[in-house]
Design a protein that fits this description.
Blueprint lengths: L1 H24 L9 H8 L2 E4 L8 H4 L5 H8 L18 H4 L4 E5 L3 E6 L4 E7 L15 E7 L2 E7 L4 E2 L6 E2 L4 E8 L7 E9 L8 E10 L15
């Protein structure tokens, strides 16, 4: 068993080294870690500046295709999986604008959302998955540092809803998120830009930017969802 685990670690390490070599050969500047920014992101809990969050179509103005618009208009609100306390998956987990926190490990980043107890794992400089790999509600996320910005690309999402009121998503949807600090409050204000690409439901990629304020003394609490109450 020990030999098997060691072999797997060696394979993973070799794959990561190959990816880094490709990036270097292509002339891209890469950074394996940004400890200063990571430490800021790990400090406490991040709270959306939009009180209570929002999930409405009118607020975002998603550029839907005709078929996407039809799916949205016919979404049965009483069949919302969240009513059964099922975690919503990405990007809907983010569009709750939930409280969230971050934890950085050697080669992964864990992002936790208080709403519905969603936990995401971001594989830093992870290799892309095969197109026919398993799709999941949160998909597969690979991250990288671009200077002081954390960039996360997500693929292999299952079909479902982008927002609570039924903006659709297909299993071809991909996400690109950038996490960065800017302005005079760079130590306490985190900006998150999210770009959604879904040719089946969106006529063009859609980008939204949200800001989160740091609460250094807060902790995430269990969501404790109850079907009869939520």
């Amino acid at each position: 068993m020990a030999n098997t685990r060691s072999a797997k670690r060696q394979i993973i390490t070799s794959a990561q080294l190959m990816l880094l070599a490709v990036l270097l050969i292509s002339g891209q500047q890469i950074s394996l870690a940004n400890s200063e920014v990571a430490a800021k992101m790990e400090a406490g809990v991040w709270k959306s500046l939009i009180a209570g969050g929002t999930n409405t179509f009118d607020f975002y103005g998603f550029p839907l295709t005709p078929s996407g618009q039809e799916r949205y208009e016919n979404f049965p609100l009483d069949q919302d999986p969240a009513l059964r306390c099922e975690p919503p998956g990405m990007p809907r987990a983010f569009y709750y604008l939930s409280l969230m926190d971050f934890s950085f490990q050697d080669d992964t980043v864990r992002i936790r959302y208080e709403t519905m107890d969603v936990v995401r794992t971001v594989h830093m400089y992870g290799m892309p998955l095969a197109p026919d790999a398993t799709h999941t509600p949160d998909g597969y996320s690979a991250g990288r540092w671009d200077g002081d910005t954390l960039v996360v690309d997500t693929t292999h999402l299952t079909a479902g809803e982008t927002t609570r009121d039924g903006i659709p998503k297909s299993n071809a949807m991909t996400l690109t998120e950038t996490f960065f600090f800017e302005g005079g409050r760079e130590d306490t204000l985190l900006s998150v830009a999210t770009t959604i690409t879904d040719p089946e439901n969106f006529v063009e990629p859609f980008t939204s930017v949200h800001q989160f304020e740091n609460e250094p003394d807060w902790e995430l609490l269990p969501f404790d969802c109850h079907q009869t109450e939520y």
